[in-house]
Write a structure and sequence with these properties.
275 residues, mainly alpha, three-stranded mixed beta sheet, two-stranded antiparallel ribbon, 10 helices, 7% strand, globular
């Protein structure tokens, strides 16, 4: 196949995806590109979650775990009620929510897999400090799943892989030669810095915003959110990369945006009564 036919074939097949796979994120209405089936990612996430439960040491702090589950349940109900009252499709309708607490003081983290599979590490508890702080972190992670960020990332990654093959083909394999000579995935690195990272920072900011909304709807004090990131900034002092090389916004930008959003969200998204 010559280059022109190759490009015509690839571009023609991709255009169909582009035209039929654009949706919008809930609440923010940011345009999204998704070609990977959500059900597929949810199933894969559930399998990985089970493996993590087998591999990692689960905390025996039942009080904290019960608190995590209580916060999660309140958010589950509030999110569902919000979309119901707004006459909108509930993006969590197919979620199979589950919560674990992993014993690891060195890891200050939490995450939510596609489909509502959530893990909190004991190391983050020094940062959250209280129930409102824990709700702020969980709201942020849940927001990633509600906004289908993993589906976006998987879809965008698939397109970039195709794009890399096209670039390598039209340059006569020169990029492959560079990769072999340097031992680096040059196109992958450039894609990460120039495309994937800004995209991921946008997702992180969106998760901050949506997470605060979900916390507020659930009755938690979102004024604690900025305190979380101020404490995290102190923990990470001198260890964070420049923003252009990071998938997360800089602490300064994050704190500024959270301060700007707080009063607006408190007024526009008060605690919701679950029927």
């Amino acid at each position: 196949m010559n280059r022109r036919k190759f490009l015509t074939s690839v571009c023609g097949s991709c255009c169909g995806f582009f035209l039929t796979s654009c949706t919008t994120a809930p609440i923010t209405e940011r345009r999204q590109f998704k070609i990977i089936p959500e059900a597929k990612l949810n199933a894969q996430a559930a399998q990985i979650y089970e493996k993590i439960k087998e591999k990692e040491k689960m905390s025996d702090d039942t009080n904290t775990l019960n608190n995590i589950k209580e916060i999660g349940k309140r958010m589950e109900n509030s999110i569902g009620e919000y979309f119901y009252q707004s006459n909108l499709d509930d993006p969590t309708i197919n979620f199979d929510w589950e919560y674990i607490l992993i014993e690891n003081k060195k890891v200050r983290n939490a995450w939510c897999m596609p489909g509502g599979k959530i893990a909190v590490y004991t190391g983050i508890l020094d940062v959250t400090k209280n129930e409102n702080g824990l709700a702020a972190v969980m709201g942020h992670e849940i927001a990633h799943a509600v906004a289908k960020h993993s589906v976006e990332r998987a879809s965008r990654g698939a397109v970039i892989n195709v794009g890399t093959q096209v670039i390598d083909f039209v340059t006569g394999g020169k990029l492959s030669q560079v990769n072999r000579a340097t031992g680096m995935n040059t196109v992958g690195l450039l894609s990460q810095l120039g495309i994937m990272n800004p995209f991921n920072r946008k997702q992180e900011s969106e998760a901050d915003y949506l997470g605060m909304i979900f916390s507020s709807l659930s009755g938690y004090d979102i004024r604690e959110t900025v305190k979380i990131w101020e404490r995290m900034k102190k923990f990470n002092k001198g260890k964070t990369p420049p923003e252009f090389m990071s998938t997360h916004p800089s602490a300064e930008n994050r704190i500024k945006k959270i301060n700007d959003w707080t009063n607006e969200i408190i007024l526009d998204y008060p605690p919701i009564k679950v029927s």
